[in-house]
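Hey, quick one: can you model this chain's 3D structure?
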Amino acid sequence: MGLTAGMFASGHTTPRLGIDLAGGTSITLEAKSDQGSAINKANMDTAVEIMNRRVNGLGVSEAEVQTQGSRNIIVNIPKGTNSEKAREQVGTTAKLYFRPVLAQEATGSAAASPSASPSGSSSASPSPSASASGTGEKATSSSSPSASATSQGRAVTDALKADSTPSASASAKASSSASPSASASSGAAVTADDAALQAKYAALDCSKESVRAKAGEGVKPEDTTVACGEIDKVWYKYLLGPAAVDGTEVDKAQAVYDTQTAAGWQVTMDFNKSGAKKFATITGQLAQNTQPQNEFGIVLDGNVVSSPFVQNSITGGQAQISGSFTQEEAQGLANMLSYGALPLSFQEQSVTTVTAALGGDQLHAGLLAGAIGLLLVVIYLVAYYRGLALIALASLLVSAALTYVLMALLGPAIGFALNLPAVCGAIVAIGITADSFIVYFERVRDEIREGRTLRPAVERAWPRARRTILVSDFVSFLAAAVLFIVTVGKVQGFAFTLGLTTVLDVVVVFFFTKPLMTLIARRKFFASGHKWSGLDPKSLGAQPPLRRTRRPGGPAAGPVETKEA
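Sure thing. Here's the predicted structure for all 565 residues.
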């Protein structure tokens, strides 16, 4: 009664259903050791923890992330969740670097048509600007660069080519001959000997997905590299210097909406001590240059997510990334930066989507199978045990009710989800529970066969039946425990349900079935051995009643009883 009251008080009156019953998406990821980290239990557990935080950061509190074997991770996302966004985040390594920009230009059709270049208005420029302060307050003066520059995060336009500044001339040269100019002050100059890199930059067409995927492949943080970034649905190519700041030096990142300047959604970052020092150094160097050499690229997993320019050194350990972010984009970027990089890279092996309709069909089929199994057990008990079947049926109902209440409570408590294998475990448990009743009934009938009446038969049969029931249930529970430990995924649902119902079987037999048998032994229908009670001494082949015998010439002998086995 207490468990039932607790179930209604908590508001969780139905078990939490798994993906295969409620619908959702299951993603299988395979670990790769291409980042120099070993595939071991520690790294896999760390990856599971990070993925859990990332998915929960999307508001998916019921998602499941768990290892499968030594190399795979299974991510189960329930229905009602943006599964595409979750797929993007769970397996993303989130390697973040801040690299100085050496050159940039549009690729594909945008590069061939000057009119395709976005206008220089601040409202159309999603390329973020960086701002910071050393006191925790948002900088609004020179340390917060304006977003109105015409070349911020953009291709070299005709207007920039016409500029007379040395940096602009160098950028024009990069656009026409794909030979990026050197920028000594950036700390990552490209010399004439870098012919291979220049050729790679010249041939880079970021409008092609296959090219973008391999743009920064195998590049180390200390290398000069090429990368791609998208602005207003136009892809740009970048030539970037060595990484100046590592993403692991970002302590905290969060998405905020700027209501004061109407800048929209921004991502704020807090650096640790070493990161703040490095960030102040690189922004101080970049502030001395002209565009595009005064920009730094924020490179996430090989893609330039933004390229803000710098006017002054940004100190204080805080920075903002602002621009034309949507709320979803800002929260997604902040989520990955906050929860860090995975120790391993992962490749998506399979994605299985189960619709709610299919899950409902499977649940209906499982419940139907359980009902058929229960009906067959009841028919057998009625045919063989007759009146005793009422006790067995009442015990089964009590066991089923306890199982249901516990499953409903364990959902919010430990995240237990009732999946199809768990339903199978509950169906198998019907036979295990019925087996305990049969053991006890047979012990009572054995006592009646030996000539005892029902009341002493019930009490004498209990110690012998109790030992057998405990041994049998212990073996079943041990098998379920081993299966739960050595398996992963949905099979654990079967093992957990089997172990739970086995424990409940002991509780029901000890605290319900045995007391109920004691009560019915006092009822005339059962005590008199009615032929429909299942305890008829005649039909059981009972021996004559026990009686005392007298030895010749001696005192009366004790009662003759059959020895226990």
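One thing worth noting: DSSP finds 18 helices and 15 strands in the chain.
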